[in-house]
Amino acid sequence: MTTSSRSSHQINRRIFLLGLTSAGALATLSAPSFAKVAAIESAVAITKVYGDGQRFVAVAVTYAKAIPAEALSVDQFSVAGRTVTDVYPSASADPSDRIDAGRVVIVALSPDDADASLAIKAERQDDKSSNQQAKGPGGPGKAGDASIADTTWAVPHATLSQATIRLGDKESIADGSSETSAVTNLIVDDFQQLEWHDPETGDVLAYNLFVPKGYDPAKSYPLINFMHDAGATSNEVLTTLKQGLGAIAWASPEDQARRPCFVLAPQYGEIIADDDSNTSSMLDTTINLIKALTEQYSIDSNRLYTTGQSGGGMMSIAMNIKYPDFFAASFLVACQWDASLVAPMAGNRLFILVSQDDSKAFPGQNAITEALEKEGATIARAEWDGHWNDEQFRFAFDTLNAQGARINYVTFAKGSVFNEGESTEGASGHRNTWRVAYSIEPIRAWLFRDAS
User: Fold this and answer.
1) Which domains does the chain have, with CATH numbers?
2) CA dist 208 to 55, 148, 359, 432, 447, Å?
3) Are 62 and 103 in contact (CB under 8 A)?
4) Closest to 144 in 3D by CA, of 285, 269, 318, 315
5) Residue 17 in 3-state DSSP?
6) CA–CA dist 239, 228 (Å, integer)
7) How sure is the predictor about 249, in pLDDT bands with cuts at 50, 70 and 90?
8) Would you say the C-alpha torsion 401, 358, 415, 438 has a positive or negative sign?
9) If residue 15 lies in a helix (H) or strand (E), which one and from where to where?
10) What is the DSSP letter of 232?
11) Rounded to whole angstroms, how far apart are CA atoms 179 and 90?
């Protein structure tokens, strides 16, 4: 090979090698390169109240950067002991604020998980003692006696783990974890916690008050008063809101959109009504509180309503007897009273709901409705199934309502208020009545109708 040929060959080989190097560099540059974005900023536990009480249902995770829905999947998140059912962006910590992309990501958890319920049940030798209707002639005590709640409520806490989230071609959120550092209680947090110092009775009554969002003093609003059962008697003011839907249902966004109203939920620290048909001074204290609220807010005194479960229903009956013209209508759940005393409420609008598995309230309400009929009241009767869905309850309500009676008396068929596999012993038939009762929307709507 000549010198000229060797030089030419060396130059071509050098160019070839440079070409390979350049091609490699280009290949390296064109491969995906993910820049790490800031990880989790905070995590908040979300609770929701169901018919049987408060549950831990989601974690709201906040990031430094908005995350699109398509970048998220259930497999990217885990919470120890819980089942992740959905993951999506939200405009806030409220799971109903779902959006296409946002800095807040809702990690929904199954409400049916064993660890979802936040209820801590008190240990009792006799399950019947947890409910005033089932303990015996005097219930858990006499009216005015102090009592201890049969359930307390844990503060939810969890550690959330998150796998890598890819944001397009060039960014990703690295694996990470975070502990919940705060709690959002859906609807419960919308209530104010206050105290009423009654100048007439001398009582001090803690209470929860929901003021309609966008409250306008130029308008007139109804008020619904919910009173809890003896098992929720407590000095912890939020107990009545966490135990079930009795107060919560009326303050839900759906109900408020249809029927804006004030919701009053007193928290009693004593037995307010007993099985001997006696009440404590809290009867007048609660009435006086309602009167004071009608003066403080634009509340229509002709559209005041009361409801209650067990002891709270008994107090509602006693209020209707003593002040028969005070409430426009009443929803009485799983309660009874001395039938010989109920004549003053014969002209009232009442919706009575009880389970045939309730050993006291069922025969008690049979006696009450018979006594009211003797006073000239017209009563529509029906038997419902506690397992029905919303559509079935609606149909059954419409059928009952067509009778046009001022008093509706509905009993849940025997065995129909129990969940599958649940014990039917003790007071289960009694307590499960209100687990279902306040979920029936047509009854809630009925209460607010104009009196005729």
Assistant:
1) 39-118+154-185 (2.60.40.2180), 188-447 (3.40.50.1820)
2) 20, 19, 31, 24, 21
3) yes
4) 269
5) helix
6) 9
7) very high
8) positive
9) helix 3-30
10) G
11) 19
Structure tokens, 153: 């409520």
Distance (Å, whole) CA 429 – CA 432: 5
Distance CA(195)–CA(407), nearest Å, equals 34
What is the DSSP track for 174-220? --EEEE--EEEETTGGGSEEEEEE-TTT--EEEEEEEPPTT--TTS-
- The answer to whether the CB of 433 falls within 8 A of the CB of 358 is yes
Is residue 3's pLDDT more than 90? no
Distances (CA, A) of 312 to 60, 285, 298, 344, 370: 35, 14, 26, 19, 22
Strand pairing partners for 137? none
User: pTM here?
Assistant: 0.88
Alpha-carbon gap, residue 113 to 104, rounded angstroms: 24
At position 346, the amino acid (one-letter code) is: A
DSSP state at residue 46 = E
The single-letter DSSP state of residue 438 is T
Task: Single out the residue of 306, 312, 304 nearest to residue 336, CA to CA.
Answer: 312
DSSP 48-116: EEETTEEEEEEEEEEEEEEEEGGG--GGGEEETT--EEEEEEESSSSTT-B-SEEEEEEEEE-TTSTTT
pLDDT above 70 for 30: no
Position 153 pLDDT exceeds 70 = yes
Residue 41 dihedral angles phi and psi, to the nearest 5°: -90, -40
Closest-CA residue to 57 (of 47, 49, 65): 47
